[in-house]
Amino acid sequence: MVKVEIFGLAVDEAGKSPIIVLKDEEETRVLPIWIGAMEAMSISMAINKVPFPRPMTHDLLLNAIRVLGGAVARVEITDIEDGTFFAEIVVDTGNETLRIDSRPSDAIALAVRAECPILAGETVLDEAGGAFPEHPEAVIKTEDAEKWQEELDKLSEDDIKYKM
After folding, report:
1. In this predicted model, which residue has the larger pLDDT, 141 or 59?
2. Which one, of 47, 64, 38, lies nearest residue 160 by Cα?
3. Which long-range contacts (CB under 8 A, 24 or more apart) does 19-27 make?
4. Other CB atoms closer than 10 Å to residue 79's CB: what's the count?
5. Which of 2, 13, 99, 127 has CA atoms 20 to 30 A from the CA of 121?
6. Three-state secondary structure string covering 18-79
């Protein structure tokens, strides 16, 4: 497994689908993962520490894990099959380590909130990753929250909800 971090959020020009872009620590490879608009919004809001009066879905999951005595140790992007990514949330309960099957977008949204590491399998990076871009400004970085918000506002949940 290779430690990765969020490089930024972008929108696929052709399909107008959100993409989360992860980068390895050496900044030699990136891993783009197409995600749903709601998950992109959740990740963006957590990165930018937007407060909500009540827990959102990923906050609820993190709260439930903690109340039940667990701690999110890390999330792992474990596999890719036919273009579909697979991930696991690794929870430490003190007595045992649990692995919870997850979509990568949900796992990443949880990782941002839990402030835990994100790891990607070497085979996943080999198959779906690419070289670190020469012009990284092509990615909408997390500091550009307003620009990202404008892009998300253009998306309709009805356009993407059945494609996730």
Report:
1. 59
2. 38
3. 20/104, 20/105, 20/108, 21/139, 22/77, 22/108, 22/118, 22/120, 23/132, 24/120, 24/125, 27/132
4. 14
5. 13
6. EEEEEEECCCCEEEEEECCHHHHHHHHHHHCCCCCCCCCHHHHHHHHHHHCCCEEEEEEEEE
**Contact call for residues 132 and 30 (beta carbons, < 8 A):** yes
- 2 three-class SS: strand
Amino acid identity at 132: F
Give residue-wise pLDDT tens across range 26-55: 999 999 999 999 999 999 999 999 888 899
Q: Write the single-letter amino acid at 149.
A: Q
Dihedral pair phi/psi, residue 4, rounded to 5°: -130, 165
* Rounded distance between C-alpha atoms, residue 150 and residue 130, angstroms: 27
According to DSSP, residue 134 is labeled S
In this structure, how many other beta carbons lie within 10 angstroms of the beta carbon of residue 158? 7
- Tell me the per-residue pLDDT of 3-19, one tens digit each, with 9 for 90 and over: 999 999 988 888 888 99
Q: Among residues of the chain, what percentage have pLDDT more than 70? A: 81
Does the pLDDT at position 106 exceed 80?
yes
Structure tokens at 52: 């909500």
Query: Are the beta carbons of 8 and 21 closer than 8 angstroms?
Result: yes
The answer to whether 48 and 110 have CB atoms below 8 angstroms apart is no
